[in-house]
Structure formats: C-alpha cells, structure tokens
Amino acid sequence: MCGIVGYVGDKQAQDVVIEGLRRLEYRGYDSAGVALVNDGSVAWAKRAGKLANLEKVLAESPLPGSTTGIGHTRWATHGAPNDTNAHPHLGNHGRVALVHNGIIENFAELRSEVEAAGDELRSETDTEIAAHLIETALAAGGTLTGAMQQVCSRLEGAFTLVAVDAEDPSRVVAARRNSPLVVGIGEGENFIGSDVAAFIEHTREALELGQDQIVTITREGVEVIGFDGRPAEGTRYHVDWDLSAAEKDGFDWFMRKEIFEQPRAIADALLGRHDAEGRLQLDEVRISDDELREVDKIIIIACGTAFYAGLVAKYAIEHWTRVPCEVELAHEFRYRDPILTRSTLVVAISQSGETADTLMAIRHARQQRSKVLAICNTNGSTIPRESDAVIYTHAGPEIGVASTKGFITQMIAAYLLGLYLAQVRGTSYADEIARVVGELRDMPGHVQRILDGADDLYALAAELEGARSVLFLGRHVGFPIALEGALKLKELAYLHAEGFAAGELKHGPIALIEPGLPVFCVVPPRGRDQLHDKMVSAIQEIRARGARTIVMVEDDDHGIEEFADTIIRLPRVSTLLQPVPAVVPLQLFACELATRLGHDVDQPRNLAKSVTVE
Ligand code: M6R
User: Fold this and answer.
1) Could you give the number of structural domains in the chain?
2) Ligand 1, from 329, 333, 351, 487: best to mutate by most atoms within 8 Å of Cβ?
3) CA dihedral angle for residue 577, residue 608, residue 175, residue 231, rounded to 10 degrees
4) Nearest CA to ligand 1 atom 10
5) 366 in the same domain as 465
C-alpha cells in the first residue's frame, strides 16, 4: 500500500530517495516524507498530499546534505492522512527515524507500554510506536540492526520497516513480514525499495528477502539475518526491464501508455509457451502432470480486476477441461469455510503478487493441502513465492493504479493454463488446442487495430462527458467485461457505473433505463447463435426505453445498426477469446473520460496500486 525507499552510498540521499518515491507514488499518495542522517542527528520533512507537496517544502527549506536516507509515500491506515501522521516517525528523542508499510496489529497493547514508559506520542499511527520501541532498544546498547531484531520479534501483523539511526550514518536497516521489500545492489551504494522501480535507474541487480528477515545495507555490502538473529540469505536476481518501462514515454498517463503496450504484453505473455505445432509447454508449472490429472475441482481466487479475469477463465477452463471451476473473491474465500481437498487446484490471480486478501486465501488453501498455482505479473513477489507453481504474465511493470495490461495478460495466462490442463488431461484434441493457440497469437494484431482507432473512443468520451451514470451489459464472457468496463469508470471517472449480465436485465436493472442513459453492450460473436440473438433482443429492449446504446459487435455482424447509437467494431475471434479485444475500447474510453473530467488518472482518489492490508 505504501511505498518505502532507503539509500546509503556516495550520492545525495535526498535526490535518490525523492526519485525513488516518485516511481513508487502509485502505491499510495496520501502523504510523503523523507529522513536523512546528518552530523549526529536526523533531518526530516513530511507533508500531507502528493509527493509534489513535499518537494515544494524541500525546495523552500532544503535539508542538509547527506548520503544516508529513507523515504515514504503513504496510503493511510491508522490515522488521517495529515502532516502529523505522515512518515517518517521518530523515536522519543529523535534518534531513530522509521518508515513503515503495513499494519502492526498489536499496536494498542504496545502503545500502552510506550506511554507507560513516559514517551510522548505525537501521531495516531502504529508506526510511531515501533519507532519508539526501536529507539528504546537502541539506547540500551548495540546496533540499529540488533534493535530492529528485538522489536520485530514482538510485532504482529504485516509490515515492512525501514529505519536510520542518527548516530550511525553508515547503515540503513529494513525488516519484512508479509509485506514487500527488495534490496538493490550497487557499487559502493545500496538501496531498499518496496519494489525495484525505486532504484531501477541505479541498478538492475536485486535481492529478494524471505519472510521475517532483516537486512542491513551499508556502502560496502548487504547483510541479512532472520528475526531470530541467525544469518540468512536473500535470493539474488537480475531485473529484466529497464528505466524506460518505468517512464511515461511521451504519454500523459502511465495508464494510457500501458493500454498501448498491450499488443507487446500479450506477445510476451505467450513467448516460449508453445512449440511450432501449438503444443503448450509451461515449464514454470512445477506441479506434476499426474497431480494435474488428479485435480477434480478448480477454485480461482482474486480481487477487483483480477477477479474479472478469473470469471473469464472459468468459462474457458470448464469448456476445455470439463473440470468444475469456481471463482471467488479472495476476501470472502476463507471465511466461508470452503471445501478444499488435496485434489483441489487453487488458482490465485494477482498483478502485484502482494494483495493481502489473496495471500491470506492461498495460505488457507495450502493449510488444507490444496495445490496453489499463481498467475502473477511481479517476479519474486509474495504470492508466487508462497504458491506451488506460477505462471508469470510478463506484462512489464504496471504503474497506473487501474489495471490494463495486467488484466489482459492475466486472461492470456488463464487461457494458457486451461489449454495446458486440457492437453495434460486429454480433454481437448491437439488440433483444437493448436487452433486456439494460433488465435491467441493473432491477439496482438487485433488489439493493435482497436488501439489504432482510439480517436473514435476519445470522441465518444467527449460526447459523454456530462453523463452521470453509465451501464455495461454483456453475456457469457462478455459479462466480466461489462463488470470490468464499469469498474474502470468508477475508479477513474468517479461515476456511477454498473455492469450486468444482460439476461438479468428484466429481473430488475431495466428499471434504471431512462432516456439518454449510456449503455455499453458487448455482443457475443455469432458462433453462439442463441447468445448473440438474445443479446440483440436486450439491446432492442433498452433502446425502446430511450437508452443511448453503444454497441460493441464483431466485424461483418450487421442488422444491429438500427438499434445502435454508436457502433464499436471488434475483430472476429472465437467467443471465449472475445474479452481480449473487447476490453480495450472500455479502457480507452475510461482513461479519456477521466482525463476530460480533470481527474488524476494514474492516482485516483482513495486508491492504491497494491492492497497489502486486509
Ligand atoms: O495486484 P492485484 O491484481 O492482486 O490487485 C487486485 C485489485 O486490487 C486490482 O485489480 C484493482 O481492482 C485495480 N485497481 C483495478 O483496476
């Protein structure tokens, strides 16, 4: 939820930290702050609101030069998003400065202890308690690393902590439990970040930490220990994308850039996953073919947009494998006591790999001995690390809070999984699988064609700028796309928007239809005749009641024109794959409408990119 940065080296720490925060701001933007170690004391600045507010403060009152520092960009949990609750937080005597991502669940009890010791607390945050405890432990002697270790073993919840000690400018110490933290390995300098974007312009060598580990970075090196104090090791890896992937590259928003990256993202998601004959090879699926043959139920768990990718996956997986497949919101999953056995395959879909609800759901599934397969975009993140197998989506970093290329590649990965299961279990013929793989390979071209027509969607957004409410209708795999179209408008344009299964209309939602109400309608391909015709009937019914119909329909499907105020043409693809091209016009429309309404498209209000608290 929050973004954290740490640096020690020979550069000005303030510059490195602020640049890192800029790249992590998508994680939370309620406030930002920085702390630097200078001449035996900690200099700090923090401000509510976006990073720009902090930068203004620093420009007016510069902090002293320093080569050791930490920074934070916040998505508020404990305490309102004001200056006082902004991070960093200091210990009682200002010796320790601390930034934090996550929630310390036993903070109330620890707060009483800190107050009983006579410390004065200034904020409402759980973080400040930890800063006081670390400073108290440090005052008893030893290093910041030792103090961090003592305190972490007392904390409950999910957290990443990063601290500096005024009396030791040589080190920055960080700790993690159930919350993201990576180390950037440089030459004569080292970095800490919530993700590699924090330091990608300085180094692409990274170290991933395990659960309950503490890392100390100095100019000379990096040392890892467990919360138990024993030496530990992280996992080194090379980041295979560069700075340009974390830049807007001439686009006004990361989101728009990411929408336009989708043809490449789809191609990358397919790369190396099939041979020339269309036979699938998912080398990273470390669940044996025998185990996959024994699967008798699949449960997909995810949140938000990833959940809608799961809904699409259900249609495809059941069709190709004939294995019953349920889709469940991750935050509901474990509380309803789901029936899980060793032959249940749980598929967790998450762009970030850090969504706490999804993480807790997979832990529950593994406790019940079910196998867990993650579909994830973020290498080395917690969800794939805690799963039995992973299919990485290879979309590249997604920075816009609204998921776009993350979603489209989640669908591609889910199709690959369904086809692979069908291949292993023999439930689809090889030529049928090869045909679908061939169609998937055509998807980058189809998506590109829609992107080439973006101006028409932008014109539509201009026409509908005054709309107060927008509905989306779909059937079959078009239903999740209707839900996704509505979610995009809610989160970006702050508009009332709802997605419905068109068949449900007459059971209630049709009462919402009034003259001029814009309704996007995703028409299934004609291959599924009944579905297609029923959708056309639904469009006629809402048009008759005055709705403004925006009809998304495949090329050469004529006859609908007289009931459509606007037609958006989709390429001809088979029914199960239609969500891939069909979602793109809805992304373009939402991005443009929100831009016209003057909203911050990359950082919509109240949201954060990865939701690392339950
Ligand atoms: O990182 P995840 O895929 O696990 O995130 C899940 C949702 O929080 C995410 O898809 C959210 O709904 C997006 N903001 C939608 O655009």
Assistant:
1) 3
2) 351
3) 10
4) 305
5) no
> End of a domain among 422, 441, 460?
441
Q: Which of 247, 273, 300 is the last residue of a domain?
A: 247
Catalytic residue among 2, 152, 325, 591: 2
What CATH number should be reported for the domain holding residue 418? 3.40.50.10490
CA 266 to ligand 1 centroid distance, Å: 18
Q: How far is CA 461 from CA 16, 457, 521, 594, 605, in A?
A: 39, 6, 16, 9, 20
529 has a pLDDT exceeding 80: no
The answer to whether residue 614 is domain-embedded is: no
Q: In what order do the strands lie in the sheet with 222-226?
A: 89-90, 96-104, 157-165, 168-177, 213-217, 222-226
Residues 198, 264, single domain; the answer is: no
- In three-state secondary structure terms, 385 is helix
Predicted TM-score of the model (pTM): 0.82
pLDDT in tens, 468-485: 999 999 999 999 999 999
Helix, strand, or coil here: 194? coil
* Dihedral (CA of 281, 210, 303, 347) sign: positive
**Probe target for ligand 1 pocket from 258, 305, 381, with the most ligand atoms within 8 Å of CB:** 305
Please identify, by atom number, the ligand 1 atom nearest to the C-alpha of residue 304. Answer: 12
Query: Does residue 516 fall inside a structural domain?
Result: yes
Kindly state the tokens that stand for 205: 């060598």
* Tokens found for residue 261: 């990256």
Report the amino acid identity of residue 336: R
Ligand 1 pocket, 355 CB below 6 A? yes
Q: Which domain holds residue 40?
A: 3-247
Candidates 529, 479, 527; CA nearest to 503 is 479
Is 609 considered catalytic here? Answer: yes
Q: 428 with 554, same domain?
A: no
Q: Tens of pLDDT along 396-418?
A: 889 999 999 999 999 999 999 99
Is residue 253 one of the residues assigned to a domain? Answer: no
Q: Give the three-class secondary structure for 578.
A: coil
Residues 234 and 126 in one domain: yes
Tell me if 291 is assigned to some domain: yes
**Closest C-alpha to 17, from 56, 70, 93, 92:** 70
> 170 near 157, Cβ under 8 Å?
no
* 99-115 confidence digits (pLDDT tens): 999 889 898 899 999 99
Q: Which ligand 1 atom minimizes the distance to the CA of 378? A: 1
